[in-house]
């Protein structure tokens, strides 16, 4: 199954700060058991402040400034 983009939104405020969210439907794998590939990021002054994603081979994890930490993804509707 080829990845299919199912949601994308990008907002840029007057100062150039960005909030962007992308969700793709993908084949269920051990790395993506929920069948989703996703990315949510907040960028301020060109620096990622916080982000959540499941990049290839890393599984579900979050970025908080320069730290990368695992977290448990539950569903699109739940909030971390």
Q: Which features does this protein show?
A:
single chain; six-stranded antiparallel beta sheet; about 50% strand; mainly beta; about 80 residues
Quick synopsis:
The chain is an all-beta fold.
Structure description:
This protein has 80 residues and is mostly beta strands. The chain has a domain of 53 residues. The protein has no helices and six strands. It has a six-stranded antiparallel sheet with strand order 1-2-3-4-5-6, with no helix packed on it. Strand 3 and strand 4 form a beta hairpin. The model has no long low-confidence stretch (mean pLDDT 89).
The biggest sheet amounts to: 6 strands, antiparallel
Number of helices: 0
**Low-pLDDT stretches:** none
Shape: globular
Which sequence of SSEs, written as H and E, runs from N to C?
EEEEEE
Mean pLDDT, rounded to whole units? 89
Strand order of the largest sheet: 1-2-3-4-5-6
What's the end-to-end separation, in Å? 28 Å
| Helix residue percentage | under 10%
Radius of gyration using CA atoms only: 13 Å
Beta-strand percent range: over 45%
The tally of beta strands, per DSSP, is 6
Q: How does the helix and strand content classify structurally?
A: mainly beta
